[in-house]
Write a structure and sequence with these properties.
Layout (H helix, E strand, L loop, with lengths): L1 E8 L2 E8 L3 H14 L10 E8 L5 H21 L12
């Protein structure tokens, strides 16, 4: 799975994408990457992980479209049965 790891380093938000089996593994892999960076002088950098988010393989726009289509279908069905689809009262 892919995870987005949100970190704050020196009061600046940074995001990195990590492939791991679990959120804990993503956190460890991201932290391991921070330890492997080499600089000229060892300076103290404050770093904290503030979020781990799973990257979903869902197109949210497509899901909303499907939900609207289902809603439209049932409103029409209720109307065909002789009821007002907004109030569910019998039409006369």
């Amino acid at each position: 799975m892919l995870f987005v790891v949100e970190t704050i380093e020196d009061n600046e938000k940074k995001y990195s994408v990590v492939e791991s089996e679990s959120p804990k593994g993503a956190m460890l892999l991201d932290g391991f990457d921070l330890l492997q960076k080499k600089g000229d002088t060892p300076n103290k950098v404050e770093s904290s992980i503030t979020g781990i988010y799973e990257v979903a393989q869902t197109n949210h726009l497509l899901e909303m479209s499907r939900n609207a289509e289902v809603h439209r279908f049932y409103r029409e069905r209720i109307k065909n049965l002789g009821f007002d689809s907004s109030t569910l009262k019998k039409l006369e």
